[in-house]
Amino acid sequence: MSSDEAQHPSPPMSGLFAFRPMETSTALPSHCYRDPMLVLERKQEEEAAAEKREQARKLARMSLARIRAESLFTKDAD
Fold first, then answer.
1. Digit-coded pLDDT (tens) for 24-60
2. Domain that residue 60 falls in
3. Rounded to whole angstroms, how far apart are CA atoms 58 and 52?
4. What does the DSSP assignment read for 11-41?
5. Domain annotation covers residue 3
6. Which of 13, 16, 39, 77 has the greatest number of beta carbons closer than 10 A?
């Protein structure tokens, strides 16, 4: 404990009126935010593209006979 701390002890950091020193803000300035709809659209496009890639990989692994057999049980109205 330094001599300054001994002369001026700091109050304990608990209780109703205990405030911590302000930390720097991590919020971005308003010009850095994007339109939420654009963000949502991009996310949905990426998810749809990932689903298409997965379907393409799945079809590449499946035999023609299996594809025909599964098409009998799918309820898609293609």
1. 767 766 766 778 888 889 999 999 999 999 998 888 8
2. 32-78
3. 10
4. PPS-STT--PPPPPP-PPPGGGPPPHHHHHH
5. no
6. 39
